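Why do we care about 3D structure at all? Because function follows from shape, and shape follows, mostly, from sequence. That is the central idea of this module. The next example makes it concrete: a single protein chain, its amino acid sequence, and then its structure expressed as C-alpha coordinates.
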Amino acid sequence: MKINLIIDFDSTFITGESLEWLAEEALKSKPHNEQKKILSQIEEITRNGMEGKLSFEESLRQRLALFKPSKSHIDQLVKRIENSLTPSFEKNREFIQQNAPNIYIVSGGFHEYMDQVLETFSILKQNISANSFIFDGDLVDGFDSTNVLSKSQGKIEAVRAMNLDGKVIVIGDGYTDYEIVAKGAGDFFIAFTENIYRGFVNEVHHIEAQSFDEVMAFYRRYVKKE
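And the structure:
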Protein backbone atom coordinates (compact mmCIF):
# COMPACT_ATOMS: atom_id res chain seq x y z
CA MET A 1 0.00 0.00 0.00
CA LYS A 2 1.38 3.39 -0.99
CA ILE A 3 1.62 5.92 1.85
CA ASN A 4 1.52 9.63 1.02
CA LEU A 5 2.65 12.28 3.50
CA ILE A 6 0.97 15.69 3.33
CA ILE A 7 3.10 18.13 5.34
CA ASP A 8 2.35 21.70 6.39
CA PHE A 9 5.11 24.31 6.10
CA ASP A 10 4.70 27.04 8.73
CA SER A 11 5.41 25.94 12.32
CA THR A 12 5.80 22.38 11.01
CA PHE A 13 8.56 22.17 8.39
CA ILE A 14 9.96 25.44 9.75
CA THR A 15 9.97 26.72 13.33
CA GLY A 16 7.62 29.69 12.87
CA GLU A 17 5.19 31.57 10.66
CA SER A 18 6.84 32.68 7.41
CA LEU A 19 4.45 35.56 6.68
CA GLU A 20 5.13 37.02 10.12
CA TRP A 21 8.86 36.74 9.44
CA LEU A 22 8.39 38.46 6.09
CA ALA A 23 6.54 41.26 7.88
CA GLU A 24 9.48 41.63 10.27
CA GLU A 25 11.83 42.04 7.31
CA ALA A 26 9.55 44.57 5.60
CA LEU A 27 9.01 46.62 8.77
CA LYS A 28 12.64 46.96 9.82
CA SER A 29 12.78 50.58 8.65
CA LYS A 30 9.75 51.54 10.76
CA PRO A 31 10.02 52.92 14.32
CA HIS A 32 10.18 50.16 16.92
CA ASN A 33 6.80 50.96 18.47
CA GLU A 34 5.13 50.88 15.06
CA GLN A 35 6.83 47.57 14.22
CA LYS A 36 5.63 46.07 17.50
CA LYS A 37 2.05 47.24 16.99
CA ILE A 38 1.77 45.92 13.43
CA LEU A 39 3.42 42.59 14.27
CA SER A 40 1.02 42.15 17.18
CA GLN A 41 -1.92 42.73 14.83
CA ILE A 42 -0.52 40.20 12.35
CA GLU A 43 -0.04 37.59 15.08
CA GLU A 44 -3.63 38.05 16.24
CA ILE A 45 -4.99 37.69 12.70
CA THR A 46 -2.84 34.57 12.18
CA ARG A 47 -4.10 33.07 15.43
CA ASN A 48 -7.74 33.78 14.56
CA GLY A 49 -7.26 32.07 11.20
CA MET A 50 -5.55 29.06 12.82
CA GLU A 51 -8.45 28.69 15.23
CA GLY A 52 -11.02 28.86 12.46
CA LYS A 53 -12.42 32.20 13.68
CA LEU A 54 -11.55 34.00 10.45
CA SER A 55 -11.66 32.78 6.85
CA PHE A 56 -8.20 32.11 5.45
CA GLU A 57 -8.68 34.49 2.51
CA GLU A 58 -9.69 37.31 4.84
CA SER A 59 -6.80 36.48 7.17
CA LEU A 60 -4.35 36.66 4.27
CA ARG A 61 -5.84 39.87 2.93
CA GLN A 62 -5.78 41.58 6.32
CA ARG A 63 -2.19 40.61 7.04
CA LEU A 64 -0.81 41.72 3.66
CA ALA A 65 -2.64 45.05 4.02
CA LEU A 66 -0.49 45.82 7.07
CA PHE A 67 2.92 45.74 5.33
CA LYS A 68 4.45 46.02 1.86
CA PRO A 69 7.20 43.47 1.20
CA SER A 70 9.62 43.69 -1.71
CA LYS A 71 11.60 41.04 -3.60
CA SER A 72 14.66 41.87 -1.50
CA HIS A 73 12.64 41.24 1.68
CA ILE A 74 11.67 37.85 0.26
CA ASP A 75 15.35 37.08 -0.41
CA GLN A 76 16.14 37.89 3.22
CA LEU A 77 13.25 35.70 4.34
CA VAL A 78 14.63 32.74 2.38
CA LYS A 79 17.92 33.07 4.28
CA ARG A 80 16.06 33.15 7.58
CA ILE A 81 14.00 30.07 6.65
CA GLU A 82 17.16 28.16 5.70
CA ASN A 83 18.42 28.83 9.24
CA SER A 84 15.05 28.07 10.87
CA LEU A 85 14.21 24.59 9.66
CA THR A 86 12.55 22.45 12.30
CA PRO A 87 15.44 20.50 13.89
CA SER A 88 13.91 17.03 13.48
CA PHE A 89 13.22 17.72 9.78
CA GLU A 90 16.82 18.78 9.28
CA LYS A 91 17.99 15.70 11.21
CA ASN A 92 15.91 13.44 8.94
CA ARG A 93 16.72 15.17 5.67
CA GLU A 94 17.92 11.87 4.15
CA PHE A 95 14.60 10.13 4.88
CA ILE A 96 12.69 13.02 3.29
CA GLN A 97 14.95 13.00 0.22
CA GLN A 98 14.60 9.23 -0.21
CA ASN A 99 10.80 9.37 0.09
CA ALA A 100 10.32 12.71 -1.70
CA PRO A 101 8.13 11.35 -4.54
CA ASN A 102 5.45 10.50 -1.94
CA ILE A 103 5.83 13.69 0.12
CA TYR A 104 3.65 16.71 -0.59
CA ILE A 105 3.85 20.16 0.97
CA VAL A 106 0.46 21.87 1.23
CA SER A 107 0.61 25.36 2.68
CA GLY A 108 -1.07 28.73 2.83
CA GLY A 109 2.45 30.17 2.44
CA PHE A 110 3.97 31.33 -0.84
CA HIS A 111 5.94 29.65 -3.62
CA GLU A 112 8.26 32.65 -3.89
CA TYR A 113 10.08 31.73 -0.70
CA MET A 114 9.12 28.10 -0.11
CA ASP A 115 10.16 26.38 -3.33
CA GLN A 116 13.91 26.93 -3.28
CA VAL A 117 14.16 25.81 0.35
CA LEU A 118 12.09 22.66 -0.21
CA GLU A 119 14.04 21.75 -3.33
CA THR A 120 17.11 21.22 -1.11
CA PHE A 121 15.12 18.34 0.42
CA SER A 122 14.47 16.97 -3.09
CA ILE A 123 10.75 17.83 -2.79
CA LEU A 124 9.43 17.88 -6.35
CA LYS A 125 8.14 21.25 -7.54
CA GLN A 126 4.87 19.65 -8.62
CA ASN A 127 4.50 18.30 -5.06
CA ILE A 128 4.51 21.81 -3.56
CA SER A 129 1.09 23.43 -3.26
CA ALA A 130 1.14 27.05 -2.09
CA ASN A 131 -0.05 30.57 -2.83
CA SER A 132 1.60 33.04 -5.22
CA PHE A 133 2.27 36.74 -4.80
CA ILE A 134 1.25 39.36 -7.35
CA PHE A 135 3.94 41.99 -7.91
CA ASP A 136 3.85 45.61 -8.95
CA GLY A 137 7.43 46.04 -10.03
CA ASP A 138 9.58 45.13 -7.03
CA LEU A 139 6.76 45.27 -4.48
CA VAL A 140 4.16 42.69 -3.51
CA ASP A 141 0.76 44.03 -4.50
CA GLY A 142 -1.44 41.19 -3.32
CA PHE A 143 -1.90 37.49 -4.02
CA ASP A 144 -3.49 35.27 -6.64
CA SER A 145 -7.05 35.02 -5.33
CA THR A 146 -7.91 32.33 -7.92
CA ASN A 147 -5.62 29.88 -6.11
CA VAL A 148 -7.68 27.49 -3.96
CA LEU A 149 -5.09 27.80 -1.18
CA SER A 150 -6.03 31.44 -0.72
CA LYS A 151 -9.53 30.29 0.30
CA SER A 152 -11.00 28.71 3.41
CA GLN A 153 -10.78 24.92 3.17
CA GLY A 154 -8.37 25.38 0.27
CA LYS A 155 -6.08 22.65 1.58
CA ILE A 156 -8.94 20.17 1.27
CA GLU A 157 -9.49 21.09 -2.37
CA ALA A 158 -5.75 21.05 -3.12
CA VAL A 159 -5.36 17.52 -1.72
CA ARG A 160 -8.49 16.23 -3.45
CA ALA A 161 -7.18 17.58 -6.76
CA MET A 162 -4.03 15.46 -6.35
CA ASN A 163 -6.16 12.31 -6.66
CA LEU A 164 -3.57 10.33 -4.69
CA ASP A 165 -3.42 6.54 -4.69
CA GLY A 166 -3.05 4.85 -1.33
CA LYS A 167 -3.33 6.21 2.18
CA VAL A 168 -2.87 9.89 3.04
CA ILE A 169 -1.27 10.94 6.34
CA VAL A 170 -1.51 14.66 7.14
CA ILE A 171 1.07 16.30 9.42
CA GLY A 172 0.56 19.84 10.67
CA ASP A 173 0.00 22.20 13.57
CA GLY A 174 -3.19 23.96 12.49
CA TYR A 175 -6.92 23.52 12.13
CA THR A 176 -6.67 23.73 8.33
CA ASP A 177 -4.48 20.59 8.38
CA TYR A 178 -7.01 18.74 10.51
CA GLU A 179 -9.78 19.74 8.10
CA ILE A 180 -8.15 17.73 5.29
CA VAL A 181 -8.87 14.53 7.20
CA ALA A 182 -12.14 15.73 8.75
CA LYS A 183 -13.56 16.33 5.27
CA GLY A 184 -12.42 12.97 3.94
CA ALA A 185 -9.42 14.01 1.81
CA GLY A 186 -6.96 12.25 4.12
CA ASP A 187 -6.88 9.19 6.38
CA PHE A 188 -4.90 10.20 9.49
CA PHE A 189 -4.09 13.54 11.10
CA ILE A 190 -0.89 13.89 13.11
CA ALA A 191 -0.80 17.01 15.29
CA PHE A 192 2.79 18.23 15.05
CA THR A 193 3.88 19.91 18.30
CA GLU A 194 7.66 20.27 18.09
CA ASN A 195 7.36 24.01 17.50
CA ILE A 196 4.00 24.95 18.98
CA TYR A 197 1.25 23.23 20.93
CA ARG A 198 -2.23 24.32 19.89
CA GLY A 199 -4.72 22.91 22.37
CA PHE A 200 -7.69 23.12 20.03
CA VAL A 201 -5.82 21.07 17.40
CA ASN A 202 -4.73 18.44 19.88
CA GLU A 203 -8.34 17.89 20.87
CA VAL A 204 -9.07 16.53 17.37
CA HIS A 205 -5.85 14.76 16.35
CA HIS A 206 -5.47 11.04 15.74
CA ILE A 207 -1.98 11.07 17.23
CA GLU A 208 0.49 13.70 18.41
CA ALA A 209 4.08 13.91 17.17
CA GLN A 210 6.58 15.99 19.11
CA SER A 211 9.15 15.53 16.36
CA PHE A 212 9.48 14.17 12.83
CA ASP A 213 11.14 11.09 14.38
CA GLU A 214 7.73 10.23 15.86
CA VAL A 215 6.08 10.80 12.46
CA MET A 216 8.57 8.36 10.93
CA ALA A 217 7.91 5.80 13.67
CA PHE A 218 4.16 5.96 12.98
CA TYR A 219 4.83 5.80 9.23
CA ARG A 220 6.95 2.68 9.59
CA ARG A 221 4.43 0.95 11.88
CA TYR A 222 1.67 1.78 9.46
CA VAL A 223 3.62 0.50 6.44
CA LYS A 224 4.44 -2.71 8.33
CA LYS A 225 0.78 -3.17 9.32
CA GLU A 226 -0.35 -2.71 5.72
